[in-house]
Specification:
The protein has 322 residues and is an alpha+beta fold. It contains 9 helices and 9 strands. The strands form 3 sheets. The chain has a 5-stranded antiparallel beta sheet, with helices on one face. A two-stranded antiparallel sheet has the order 6-9. The protein has a two-stranded antiparallel sheet with strand order 7-8. A hairpin with a 2-residue loop joins strand 1 and strand 2. It starts with 50 loop residues before the first strand and ends in a 7-residue tail after the last helix.
Length: 322
């Protein structure tokens, strides 16, 4: 396996679930992605003075996300502030790329909606987003425990529909993981955080490997030299989805023992050289097959998003399971 250079650019952050008592079951079953709807009306222009900050929702490598209220409408939103003041040109480019990706995917019901963006006097870029009241799937996992297969099938179906919309617009996300998938009280799942995304200009355009979260990178991203310094970003998104579903099912990150803290070497060896994590005996054949289709070591053998949308695991009737 070739040595990956510039390791310091990799994000090793892997939030491990903390022990907690189980909360009551989800308030509602996950709906079919087709039942979601999104308004196509153009939102009015906004400014910082229109927004009242309520509290911080979370911090990430890209900045801070706040829960805010629009003073005029009283609508609740999420405001992502990307710190790019001074000479941080890369952060500014990433924020603008994120806004453009969200604009292109505005019609997708399974991509978080962007209501607008503006640049603050200090140079930071703020992105006003749809507020998802249950937070991330990482948080849902921590609070409610591992997911059952019916809920996982609905999560997979909705994320696949979102990825289908993105990939059809030549957008690759490059950081699919539980903390970048948001859920609301209607159990709608939406793809968020496009800070690592890339808009492809050509079908066979090269895609660099040193972005995203190291723990959720596909094997070929750890070994870029064997791929001419690039990789298939569409297949990388599929790997991230498969790994996410496996983590939601098991309740912990699949390539490490429960409670084990990640480091670059252990992740690289486990993902590139290790066997696919085993599933408990009670896992259905359809779920096993779906995960295997996503987590093929060779990117060319992974199923595409369109193929996965026809897989029996996500084609079951969500009510009857048949």
């Amino acid at each position: 396996m070739a040595l990956v250079r510039h390791r310091r650019q990799l994000n090793l952050r892997l939030p491990l679930p903390e022990p907690s008592g189980r909360l009551p079951p989800f308030p509602a079953p996950f709906p079919s992605a087709a039942s979601s709807s999104s308004s196509s009306a153009t939102p009015p222009a906004i400014s910082p003075s229109d927004l009242e900050t309520l509290h911080v929702l979370g911090h990430g490598n890209g900045g801070t996300v706040y829960k805010v209220r629009h003073r005029g409408t009283s609508d609740i939103h999420a405001l992502k502030v990307v710190r790019c003041s001074g000479s941080d040109a890369s952060a500014r480019r990433g924020a603008r790329r994120e806004v453009e990706a969200l604009r292109r995917a505005a019609s997708s019901p399974n991509v978080v909606r962007c209501h607008g963006s503006f640049e603050e006097p200090c140079g930071d870029i703020a992105i006003l987003l749809e507020y998802m009241d249950l937070g991330t799937l990482e948080l849902v996992l921590r609070n409610y425990g591992p997911f059952g297969e019916p809920d996982l099938a609905d999560v997979a179906r909705q994320v696949l529909n979102g990825l289908d919309q993105l990939h059809s617009r030549k957008i690759i996300h490059r950081d699919i993981k539980p903390s970048n998938l948001l859920v609301n009280s209607k159990m709608e799942v939406k793809i968020a955080d496009f800070g690592a995304s890339k808009i492809m200009c050509r079908t066979l355009e090269a895609c660099d490997s040193y972005v995203g979260t190291c723990a959720y990178m596909s094997p070929e991203r750890f070994d870029p030299d064997s791929n001419g310094g690039s990789y298939n970003g569409y297949a990388g998104d599929v790997w991230g989805l498969g790994l996410t579903l496996l983590e939601l099912y098991l309740g912990y990150f699949p390539f490490l023992d429960p409670g084990q803290r990640p480091n670059w070497a252990s992740l690289a060896c486990a993902i590139c050289l290790g066997e696919m994590p085993s599933l408990p005996e009670q896992a259905s054949g359809e779920f096993r097959s779906f995960v295997e289709c996503c987590l093929q070591k060779e990117s060319g053998k992974r199923w595409t998003v369109l193929q996965l949308l026809t897989h029996p695991f996500v084609c079951k009737d969500p009510i009857s399971g048949a």
